[in-house]
Write a structure and sequence with these properties.
By secondary structure, this protein is mostly beta strands. The protein has one domain: Cupredoxins -  blue copper proteins (Immunoglobulin-like, Sandwich), CATH 2.60.40. The chain is about 10% helix and about 45% strand. The chain has a 4-stranded mixed β-sheet, with no helix packed on it. The chain binds copper (II) ion. Copper (II) ion binds next to loops.
Length: about 120
């Protein structure tokens, strides 16, 4: 009896077509290291609607990871890491950069987030 009820409860989930708006997002995990005035990696490739999970590690000086179009700005203190996630719901190429001005190296810290159509 119990199994029957469970099967009924799950049926609507199984019937959901792949690619539907409410489908569970794919989680993509990246580690970005800020060091020597650059980000490693300098390019991140994802697909639209991926849940992008990034751990930013500021190896020596404080650093941030900012993407204007996504209204994103996360900061890590020197020698620290911060983890955050966002939904890549806009297709295109977006610059990510360090928005801090605490040292001259911040200006050269740039990368590109590429969000491809699904
Ligand atoms: Cu910086």
């Amino acid at each position: 009896m119990r199994l029957t009820l469970l099967a009924c409860a799950l049926a609507p989930l199984v019937a959901t077509p792949l690619g539907a708006q409410d489908a569970a997002p794919t989680t993509r995990t990246f580690t970005v290291v800020a060091k020597d005035g650059r980000f490693e990696p300098e390019r991140i490739d994802v697909t639209r609607n991926d849940l992008v999970r990034i751990t930013l590690t500021a190896a020596e000086a404080p650093a941030s990871f900012a993407i204007d179009a996504y209204r994103l700005m996360k900061r890590a203190g020197a020698g620290e890491s911060v983890t955050f996630a966002f939904r890549a719901d806009q297709v295109g190429r977006f610059a990510y950069y360090c928005s801090l001005s605490s040292n001259v190296q911040c200006r050269t810290m740039k990368g590109t987030l590429v969000v491809a159509e699904r």
